[in-house]
Write a structure and sequence with these properties.
8-stranded antiparallel β-sheet; 7-stranded antiparallel β-sheet; 19 helices; 29 strands; 32% helix
Length: 702
């Protein structure tokens, strides 16, 4: 939900204004994760010898925070820092309304001894708050986060300076329950930054000296060194006491961020922190430590224990190279990210299929599907009792779109589960089940909880995610990355269509041993090759969708009817309209029309009916006839050249012609005009396209 960002420079002289700009730009890249309020913390003072941490917070977008900081007269923007730690946060409100007092960074006291930014939720914050209030701490906000810096100060005083910054934070984290990514800054540990992760995403980026022989950060049990520094191990020089000497980096910059999109313009060398990792930046080096969770053994009823008992081990985390370009997080020639991402769908689908569709005749003929990440698990899935598709929102709709095909090709029962409902119902999952978890971000809290629930019961867990290195991609047994590219707009568009393509590929791979379905599989694979071009054709409907949006912009409600593969189209189209255009819309299974929804139909109600040619065509034709008989304002999505449905709909109906593909892929093409419609409706109604009211991109709270 929220986004956190930090910048540390060591041996790299940086002006205070440049530090502020880096923090603000990093938060802008993360603004899709929350845009209710924002804040940063930096060091400030008349000189480098008289520094103190200053906190700046403001309600609203990052630009409002930037204006607020610009108008501050006490900032010494000409200061140059050889070593500085700055932290920032953009908030999506969960505890307390958007207001400066509820914004991050949160502080331990008036002198800002300990500052923290937090992404996630602390489930035991009330018990900690009550304990700290009894100890005399005064709380200013309504958030769950404020207990963290105050608890840090309380434990620091209890330990009487007997702990390092890292050890102190480990003791704090030990008391916390829930999901979180945290970054700490303190006046007691100048020049140091500590980050901790459990559940919520957090990346560490590294910027080193330029040049081909630049050193690489390497972690050893003896401390921090660089790959082209002095030798280590038995060859390392030793001090007078015979202990190996550490070699620290002289010129290095570090970044922490909730997402790679905030990192890529600075560095592509990152490492992903794992759950229960604590990262400590100090003297130009970094260390990653693994917390060993320990249950309290004392009989005290207090939620806090006073002796530093957390055991930790220094561990290595692989430094990876981001497969992302800066252009992917820029709007380019488009006015909004949502518009850009809608038009990127043909190329995104090509990326989803790249290397997975084995072709011949210079890519014109499909032969087979190869999913490298699934090779060792395909036979196990074929022997499953059932396949369970699990997701939330748009990801759940993509599961609906492929359920019928997966049942047809695998001959296994396929059930659908809303991730938020799995734990509520305590769904019966078994060891011979295969559970497919679908999430664009790979960090969706409800989906993560459902996945952990399934793993505890021995089910095989498969991930369908867009974000490489996300929690779901690391925790599942196997999976498929959809490779749709960075999706910045809160309303998912290209991730939805690429999820469908990825799961169709999965269904094809699972049915590869079926001779009786060889012809059907061949037809689907061939249609997959033609799908990007069909979507390009559908994108040419943009002008027609703009005209339709102008006719609908003042409406109060919109009903969408779909059936079979296109029930998902009705649901997803309705979700897009309500998400961004803030217009009530409802996706309805056309077979249920006579069981209640028909009562809403009159001459003023706009009705969208998906009536492309597939196995449900005749029934949808009947639906159109019934809606026309009751005077409904018909808007049809129909197959190009289908004069029959045009005649049934009548001359007053608006018909959106889309190209024809294989029936199981038609939902991918049919959703494109509805995405365009929702986009234009939003612009015409004067709402924010990329950051709709009350929503955020990565839902990391339950």
């Amino acid at each position: 939900m929220c986004g956190i960002f930090a910048y540390v420079n060591y041996g790299v002289p940086t002006k205070q204004k440049a530090i502020v700009d880096k923090l603000l730009n990093g938060l802008r890249r993360l603004e899709y994760r929350g845009y209710d309020s924002a804040g940063i913390a930096i060091d400030n003072g008349p000189s480098l010898d008289e520094l103190s941490p200053n906190v700046f917070k403001e309600t609203g977008k990052i630009d409002m925070l930037a204006d607020f900081i610009t108008n501050k007269e006490n900032l010494n923007s000409d200061l140059f820092f050889e070593n500085h730690c700055g932290i920032g946060h953009t908030r999506w409100a969960t505890h307390g309304p958007p207001a400066p007092r509820n914004s991050h960074p949160h502080t331990s006291d008036a002198s800002n001894e300990f500052l923290v930014v937090h992404n996630g939720i602390i489930t035991n914050h009330q018990a900690l708050r009550e304990m700290l209030e009894r100890k005399g701490f005064v709380f200013e906000s309504e958030t769950d986060t404020e207990v963290i810096p105050k608890l840090t100060k309380y434990l620091y005083e209890k330990f009487h300076n007997r702990v390092t910054f890292r050890q102190l934070i480990m003791e704090v984290v030990r008391q916390l329950q829930g999901a979180f990514a945290l970054i700490f800054k303190s006046t007691h540990y100048p020049g140091e930054l500590v980050a901790a992760k459990r559940g919520s995403p957090l990346l560490l980026g590294i910027v080193e000296e330029p040049g081909k022989n630049a050193p690489h950060a390497v972690l050893t049990s003896e401390g921090f060194k660089t790959s082209n520094a002095r030798p280590v191990g038995d060859e390392a020089p030793r001090d007078d006491g015979g202990k190996r000497q550490k070699t620290l980096k002289n010129h290095v910059e570090y970044y922490f961020a909730s997402d790679a999109s905030a990192m890529v313009e600075h560095t592509k060398r990152v490492l992903h922190l794992e759950d229960d990792d604590v990262a400590h930046l100090h003297n130009g080096g970094y260390g990653i430590y693994r917390m060993e969770r320990s249950k309290p053994t004392s009989g005290t009823s207090s939620p806090v224990h006073y002796e530093p008992t957390v055991q930790s081990a220094e561990v290595e985390r692989t430094v990876e190279t981001l497969q992302m370009e800066v252009e992917q997080i820029m709007k380019g020639s488009f006015k909004h990210f949502m518009q850009k991402e809608i038009h990127e769908q043909p190329e995104s689908m090509v990326q989803t299929m790249r290397g997975r569709m084995v072709t011949c005749d210079e890519g014109k003929t499909a032969e087979r599907v190869f999913l490298g990440g699934m090779v060792n698990f395909v036979s196990t899935i074929r022997r499953s009792r059932r396949i369970i598709l699990c997701g939330c929102g748009t990801s759940y709709n993509s599961a609906i779109a492929v359920r019928q095909l997966m049942e047809e090709l695998t001959e296994l029962p396929v059930t659908l589960e809303l991730a938020s409902d799995v734990l509520d119902r305590q769904c019966p999952f078994f060891r011979d089940d295969t559970c497919v978890f679908i999430s664009q971000s790979g960090e969706t809290a409800d989906t993560l909880k459902a996945m952990q629930y399934a793993k505890e019961r021995g089910a095989l867990c498969v991930g369908i995610v867009n974000t490489v290195g996300s929690a779901i991609s690391r925790s599942t047994d196997c999976g498929v990355h959809i490779n749709a590219g960075a999706e910045i707009g809160v309303a998912s568009t290209k991730a939805y269509t690429c999820q469908i393509v990825a799961m169709v590929l999965l269904a094809l791979a699972l049915s590869e041993d079926s001779i009786s379905r060889a012809t059907r599989r061949k037809e689907i694979m061939q249609s997959l090759l033609d799908l990007p071009e069909a979507v390009r054709t559908a994108l040419k409907l943009d002008a027609q969708m703009l005209a339709l949006a102008k006719a609908l912009k003042d409406e109060q409600s919109l009903l969408l009817f779909g059936r079979g593969y296109n029930y998902a189209t009705a649901l997803e189209g309705a979700l897009k309209v309500k998400e961004v255009a803030l217009l009530h819309s409802e996706g309805i299974l056309a077979g249920e029309m006579k069981h209640g929804p028909l009562a809403l139909v009159d001459e003023t109600m706009p009705l969208v009916v998906v009536a492309t040619r597939d196995s449900s065509y005749a029934k949808q034709e009947s639906v159109v006839q019934q809606l026309r008989a009751r005077g409904g304002r018909l808007i049809l999505i129909a197959t190009e050249g289908d004069d029959q449905i045009a005649e049934v709909a009548g001359k007053d109906a608006t018909i959106i012609w889309v190209p024809e593909v294989e029936d199981c892929l038609q939902a991918v093409v049919n959703i494109v005009p509805l995405q365009l419609l929702s986009y234009h409706l939003t612009v015409l109604r004067g709402h924010n396209v990329d950051q709709p009211r009350n929503l955020a991109k990565s839902v990391t709270v339950e």
